[in-house]
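Work Package 3 (structural annotation) set out to generate three-dimensional models for the target panel prioritized at the project kickoff. During this period the team completed the workflow that converts sequence records into discrete structure tokens, so that structures can be stored uniformly alongside our sequence database. As a representative example, we reproduce one entry of 501 residues exactly as it appears in the project archive.
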Amino acid sequence: MTVEGQVAVTGEVQCYAVVGKVNAGKSAVLATLLEEDDDRIIRISPEPGETTRCQRLSLVMAGSERLRFIDTPSFQQPIAALRHIRALHGDAATQPDRATLQRFVAECRQQFPDECRLLEPLLEGAGVVYVLNPAVPLYDSFRAEIEILRWTGRPRLAVLNSKGGAGRAAHEDTWRAHLGTAFNLVRAFNAHRARFAARRQLLVALNQIEETQQGTLEATLQLLDEEWRQRREQSAEAMLACIGRAFAWRETGRYRDDETSMEKSRERLVEQLRLGYFKHISALERDCSQQLLAIHRHHIMQAQLWRLAADDFGPDLDLAHADTWRRLGLNRKQLTAAGATIGAGAGLGVDSIVLGHALGLPTLAGGIGGGALAFFKGDALPTLKVGIGDRDIAGGRQLSLGPPRNPNFGWVLLDSLLLRYRQILDHPHGRREGATLPAPGAHGPAGLVTDLPADRRKTLTRWFRACLRGRGEGDDGVELTALHATLDEVEQELTSTHTAT
């Protein structure tokens, strides 16, 4: 979404210089606004003075540059610069103008290098995006910066990049009162918490301060909305494809079928296949999560695998183990609720098989609570389908394991992916800590599938059952529509939560 290059302001693309004091959060605001997480393009550092040159960063949509931002160096000597500009102007009865600032830039590069660099794009026609932290008191140095920016005569938007703190509210009122006399508009924007709606609102604010560019900016907003809708659709398609592949997967192997070694060979193979099956499902879920990250332009963050290994779950590493379900994104409360709403509401029958000691699987008694039982209705537990082939000439047989016989397995995968999706939407690009997208687990947020409307649950349940029968390729796309609506609701819930807080 961003293009880095030399500063070149033209009349074709509206340009805004992003200015502010050291550590005000200019780079973080740009990273979140432009969805750029690469430190090689936008470096976000706790060390002051990271930006030392003007850097062009562009909003690119539909293959063309729609907006251009210039990340400028911070003010270093604003009070001294203000006095020098006034001295150059020479008339105490009037305010310095554009001509005075041009003279300042031409004559004072050695004495005020950073101030001259940040003023250059403004004098070439760029608008002003002034980023500040309202938790910091309004010192005289800030007043000097604001006055210099006012003298440029360019459209000006002030962005209150709040980072929290006990003094935020008191200082914010002071800031707003002072900024209101020098800026066209003042908007709050937390670069570490802003989601899509907040990003869009900031672009709307640019539209409000630059009347001559309203048509162009409105077209950009339309493109932004359409791209976001496409992302939602792509995310839904990726999730459904993952679930479909999971239902279709069989882990296969061969074992010797003779009187002396049949039982032990089969036991060893079943254990191997069971571990392989869950590792494959874990990889499918992780790969889908990585797709979701790419769709939302998170190129650095990596999705964490489910930790499906023997040391996590002990000998009962299968879907009959309660910890497996919690690891896949549902706690006992969610399991119980899902059992009451999904199982009964959709009228599901249970088709399961209990594998005995002959196949080396543990008994299904113990180790699982009533919540998981409720999820699968009654006393039946989810087990993997088993298939044993005919004996070949060499005395061997093929054994296959998977998928779970109960279609409710799809709800577990879907819930895990929905939780991942919410985590992705909840992680702005300007927040660089946490390079790993954690796998949902027992101690993570509550699941989401039990909150779905009844008609949507029925639609998805029918699709899960079709997948189990190998007929998940529907032509009507109702499952895609249902999931698209669910992703929209996840986004709305996040937006309302952050608006309220």
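The longest strand covers residues 396-404.
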